[in-house]
Specification:
2 helices; mainly alpha; rod-shaped; 109 residues; single chain; 92% helix
Amino acid sequence: MLQALCVSVVFLACVLVLAAAVSCALAVRALRWAAAREMALNVDLARQKEALRQAEFKSNAFASASHDIRSALSAIAGLVDMSRPEVQSVPGIMENLDQMGVCTNKLFG
């Protein structure tokens, strides 16, 4: 009877050790999966930050170019307006100035 009890206790201990080993293996597997997932998320985050940085750079470059173009157009429009009184008597030049005015207004739009 004592021998059967000892065998049962040893068997139960072996089952508990096996269950603990399986639990540890599953925990290690879950930790590896979590680490891999975190690494993938970090890579995605780095890509998104780089894409945002490039988009901001392009937006700033576009804004700067737009400002430069609009400044030059304003200067041209001002020169056209200033030239009108001086050339009112010359119809060909007046037509050219009118056309330049129309074109600059279209570009402003």
